[in-house]
Amino acid sequence: MDDPDIAMKEINPAHQSAPLTPAARDEIAALADRQRKANGVLMQAINFVGGQVEDTLKLLPKATRTRVEKVAQSALRQSYELASKSRDGIGQNIGSDRMHKFMGTVSGAVGGFGGLPTAIVELPVATTVIFRAVHHVAVEYGEDPLSPETRLQCLAVFGAGGPTQADDGIDISFIGARLSISGAAVNGLITKVAPRFAAVLSQKLATQAVPVLGAAAGAGTNYAFVDYYVAMAHVHFGLRRLARTYGDEAVAAEFHRVLAQASLPQT
Predict the structure, then answer these.
(1) Contact 208/225 with Cβ under 8 angstroms?
(2) Residues 4-39: pLDDT tens digits?
(3) Residues 59-63: what's their mean pLDDT?
(4) Are the C-beta atoms of residues 229 and 99 closer than 8 Å to each other?
(5) For residue 234, what are the contacts with CB-CB under 8 A and spacing of at least 6?
(6) Stretch (H or E) spanning 111
(7) 134-166: pLDDT as tens digits
């Protein structure tokens, strides 16, 4: 089986990268701050209400918890295929973070109304909404909307973990990497990303397990998840845009420096 890491090679730009300017450093600092704030007040509230993780996930049957990763893989694959196609026709009028959050909220409410059975059915819909929102952000930052590589980079954003894992963040290795466009590469990346995304979906299902009440929980979690992954997409593709001018090593190093500096105790 092909290793997804082998399917990646670092970009070697033909031109020499420009040195980081003060404006570029400020933009990197803003992106680092956006990553830190992604796990915001709303997500913390959802974690408290529906996500006392160890207790809440006990609501899910063991067979359901086992099945979630397969559902995550299937949903990510479906979303990968649909992302660029959904920009045609009526889809071209759906092009804002706010609209994607609205769509996710409605989807979550409908999915949670019937409890666990309808929540499971709704997972691919929620995943597609999130993926499409991430794809929209990619295009905002100059990525080719029709390029398979853009969709692979969108998949990479799902590898950022989820709002239930506060120490997770953007995987810098993807920022300056050009992914090999092949079926094996797509499947390999989905296999790599799916377990982390499945952990997010498991908590979402747990909050929606109770009928009727699950509608409110589903609406809230979907809104929060779209908000989180949109924020991660802005960070990921914002750094990629900067790397095209200043080089991925310099951008990644500055990004890590800012994050580390912010985590130091204040004196």
Answers:
(1) no
(2) 444 444 444 455 788 999 999 999 999 999 988 887
(3) 69
(4) no
(5) 31, 34, 137, 141
(6) helix 97-113
(7) 999 999 999 998 888 899 999 999 887 666 555
Nearest-angstrom CA–CA distance, 241 and 248: 10
Tell how far CA 253 is from the center of its chain: 22
Taking only the tens place, the pLDDT of each residue in 88-137 is 544 454 555 666 676 666 675 555 555 677 777 788 888 888 898 999 99
The C-alpha atoms of residue 142 and residue 144 are separated, in whole angstroms, by: 6
Both tokens assigned to 27:
């933009």
Contact 196, 204 (CB under 8 A): no
Strands 8-10 and 177-179: antiparallel
Q: Which residue reads 């990197």 in tokens? A: 28
Residue 13: the pLDDT is 46
Question: What is d(CA 51, CA 225) in angstroms, rounded to the nearest whole number?
Answer: 13
Among 196, 185, 175, 100, smallest CA distance to 148 is for 185
The burial class, CB within 10 Å (0-12 / 13-18 / 19+), for 255 is buried
